[in-house]
Write a structure and sequence with these properties.
Elements (H helix, E strand, L loop, with lengths): L6 H4 L1 H8 L15 E8 L3 H13 L5 E4 L15 E3 L6 H8 L1 H24 L11 E4 L3 H16 L6 E5 L3 E6 L2 E3 L2 H14 L3 E3 L4 E5 L2 E4 L3 E9 L15 E11 L4 H7 L6 E4 L5 E5 L5 E5 L18 H14 L8 E12 L5 E5 L4 E5 L5 H16 L24 H23 L4 H9 L3
Parallel strand pairs: 1-2, 1-11, 2-8, 4-13, 11-18
Antiparallel strand pairs: 3-7, 4-6, 5-6, 9-10, 10-11, 12-15, 12-16, 13-14, 14-15, 17-18
Length: about 450
């Protein structure tokens, strides 16, 4: 049986709030019984809380209720790598293929604007979340990475997006720099959003497990909420709700943080404060230099658990965390011997077609949003504003974006899901090793990429 959740062990970000005296993470009250609302939101993460704030901006007198099983920021919103990027798991070329060039350009432009909007809106709400738009450096350390960088530049130009520039630094080396990304402290943001929603009139109930969603009604372990409009914003945890189920697969991403590092180390690394960093490997890694000069660094590679299981015990893996530590020193030899103070992880939500969605169902009385595959810090803001327009019966440029109305297909039943997903995860590590030896594109990666989206 899993131990009770310890908020401070959930992530470095949440522990940091307590350590600095910014938030004691004291629990909010649970739902006190049956009640009525105009809008009931399931999930107190970025999507749910941006939705709550946005609804109340549009309709200040609306009765908005947010239901959360654990505490605000418990899920991916309090655990991620802190990238507010314009990335979507489905790239601009695939968006154009599915929805047409004009719709794809509108979606991409909306995401680029959202990177700035996260900073603008946070400041307007009085939330200091260490927002810093210093861009992403994608390290080019091989011939194949150079080719991938050229392809990324070409795709951006064709999509009408800002084209990443090649930069060279004596310490960092050659990299592709993308401007459309900011770094931030996600726990400061999500906890600040919960307070902002409450200040505007929303009620956030924690310790309340939702057991069912149907038009006009949300049932929980603590009572029933009757609501005209319902929003399901549970990301990976939606796999346990019939309203989402097999349309989302929980896939773990693990993260670690170093101690604050002296400027002498950062000078040898070459990464500016507030910048984010990755490279072109198949098994994705992501990092940021934090406001207090730590490296927060994460990556994929953890196995999928049978039956879409989500448990606290899966948040840490000594094997994967050791791999991440080795990756840090391989990318940045100057960090050899640094101390890692925090290790954590959590599930992100993966739709079967890797296409994020804002899906009105039941005639629009229920809206399900998510499927960000780890790119949700900015996308959740755009989703929240879009959902707010939908549930307040507004038709805007946001509600015309191509992810509105998209309903991803269901993942395969078990045991096919378990076997297939873990085969793809394992093959990506093999593909990276193969390319490092051969300097040729991996056939394994090409096949795995197709399987992951078909």
């Amino acid at each position: 049986m899993d131990a009770p959740v310890n908020p401070r062990r959930t992530s470095f970000w949440l522990d940091d709030l307590v350590e600095r005296g910014l938030d004691d993470l004291a629990p909010r009250a649970a739902l006190p019984g049956d009640l009525r609302a105009d809008v009931c939101i399931v999930g107190a993460g970025f999507t749910g809380l941006w939705t709550a704030v946005s609804v109340l901006e549009r309709e200040p007198d609306a009765r908005v209720v947010v239901l959360e099983r654990e505490f605000a920021g418990f899920g991916a919103s309090g655990r991620n790598g802190g990238w507010a990027s314009a990335l979507l798991p489905i790239g601009p070329a695939e968006l154009a293929r599915r929805h047409g060039a004009e719709a794809a350009r509108a979606m991409s432009a909306a995401m680029v604007d959202t990177v700035d909007e996260v900073g603008r809106a946070s400041a307007a709400l009085g939330i200091d979340c260490d927002y810093s738009r210093r861009g992403t450096y994608s390290l080019i350390r091989s011939v194949l990475a150079d080719r991938a960088a050229t392809e990324e530049q070409r795709e951006a130009e064709e999509a009408g997006l800002p084209v990443p520039e090649r930069v060279s630094d004596a310490a960092l080396g050659v990299a592709l720099r993308t401007d459309a990304c900011a770094s931030l402290h996600p726990a400061k943001l999500v906890r600040g959003l919960a307070r902002a929603a409450e200040e505007r009139g929303a009620t956030v109930f924690e310790g309340t497990t939702v057991t069912g969603v149907e038009p006009g009604r949300v049932t929980t372990t603590e009572g029933t909420v009757l609501a005209d409009r319902i929003v399901v914003a549970t990301e990976a945890w939606g796999s346990a709700l019939p309203a989402v189920g097999r349309r989302i697969l929980p896939l773990y991403s693990l993260v670690l943080a170093t101690e604050p590092l002296p400027e002498a180390v950062w000078a040898r690394v070459g990464l500016p404060r507030g910048a984010t960093v990755t490279d072109f490997r198949h098994n994705l890694v992501y990092g940021q230099r934090t406001a207090d000069d730590r490296l927060v660094f994460g990556g994929r590679g953890a196995r999928y658990h049978f039956g879409s299981a989500i448990r606290p015990g899966y948040d840490r893996s000594s094997r994967v965390h050791r791999h991440l530590e080795r990756s840090v020193t391989a990318l940045f030899p100057a960090m050899t011997g640094v101390r890692f103070t925090h290790r954590w992880g959590g599930p992100l939500g993966v739709p079967r077609d890797w296409h994020p969605f804002v899906s009105p169902v039941a005639g629009g009385r229920v809206v399900v949003a998510g499927g960000y595959v780890g790119d949700g810090v900015a996308a959740a803001n755009l989703a929240g504003r879009t959902v707010a327009d939908l549930v307040t019966d507004r038709r805007t440029a946001l509600t015309a974006l191509p992810w509105v109305g998209h309903r991803p297909p269901r993942w395969e039943p078990e045991p096919l899901r378990f076997a297939g997903v873990n085969a793809v995860i394992g093959s990506l590590a093999v593909a990276d090793a193969e390319e490092a030896v051969t300097s040729r594109p991996s056939a394994i990666a090409a096949v795995s990429g197709r399987l992951g989206r078909e």
